[in-house]
Predict the 3D structure of the following.
Amino acid sequence: MKFLAALMLSAAALAPATAFAAAPVAAPAADTNLDKLVALMAPEDSIGRLAGKAFDAGMDQQVAADPKMKATFDANPGLRDQVGGQLRTQFTDILVAALPSLRTEISGILQQELTATEIADTLTFFASPTGQKLRAEVYETMGGAPGQSPQEIQQAAIAAVMAKMTADDYPALMAFGASPAAQKMSTINPKIQAASQAWATKLVEANRPKMQALAVKLTSEYLAKKGAK
């Protein structure tokens, strides 16, 4: 889930470096703010859409790399949509169902790295119209090119946000830039990226046999039905 790291990277990069202040000592964050922040960072609908796009890109790459599979798909134009569509839905459902475990991982990282004040500041920014604009651009950028690195997503998202930024966006941007949370992104980002990648890899490997069996079943059923006509 590279987009989670990209989201945090983009927020930090958009904040003016000269506005950073020293981090204050604060009590542990309240669960409600932490939960709200994690929900904003990993929303079910956006992750579901990204999972579908990532699946489509991965399937296209797999078909292109396998001459026998490519020949089968080329000879059966409807096979891609019929089989791929059902596998896509299954894949997305599996990922979304496991989302609470990813949120738990992210929550633990944020709670360990950020104070209550820093979590509140980050939540305020991501919940603001400017933060919403940033999140939307990160998700859009990631969906358009699933293979990009977090840094590439960050650069593209920043460029898109800056192109759409208005005078109304600067107060929220400056406020977040002045918060200690912004300067901690370089420490938090790699941890979120590593945890997200480990979560995704474990999920894919655990469900690979079931997905492969379903692919074989759906393909056989499609070809048998086509041959019976």
In short: The radius of gyration is 21 Å. The chain has twelve helices and no strands.
